[in-house]
Amino acid sequence: MTEPSPGGARARPGYSRRFPSSLLSAEIWLERGLVAARLGGELDIYSAADLGAALGEAQREADRGSVLFLLEALTFADSSALGVFVGALKRARAAGGGVALVGVPEFLLKTLRVTGLATHLPAFATVEEGWDRLETASGRAEAPENTHTQ
Predict the structure, then answer these.
(1) Average pLDDT by stretches of 10, the chain with 150 residues
(2) 117: burial class by Cβ within 10 Å (0-12, 13-18, 19+)?
(3) 77 partner at 20 to 30 Å CA-CA among 49, 64, 108, 123?
(4) Domain segments of the chain: what residues?
């Protein structure tokens, strides 16, 4: 399995951002023209705003704004974490990209299913599957579920 890594052979030089807080560690970088974000610890209301801002900055620099989230080390996520994922998805779709989640902990999978977000934030077992989904979807933004107004 090829793990994406900041500064790796396929990473775009000049963009890598790492910022730890007391409960969240997050590393964001550009690779293959997409954003990769490795998260660990607790993603909650105290860290969500900073993470969302950093993702937005990286998405503006990426070719399509797509984001691959690596979540195997995430131990907690509250509703503000869902907001981070949905915000990244909205920005990605606006740029013709998408979002893929890899290594999603069971507690978060349950939350995504219960909220209905699992259909919009697909989870994959391997990094390669996530990359393939994002690269295949490039140039093809998914339409919103409900496009009509009342």
Answers:
(1) 48 57 88 94 93 95 94 96 98 96 98 96 97 78 34
(2) middle
(3) 64
(4) 15-136
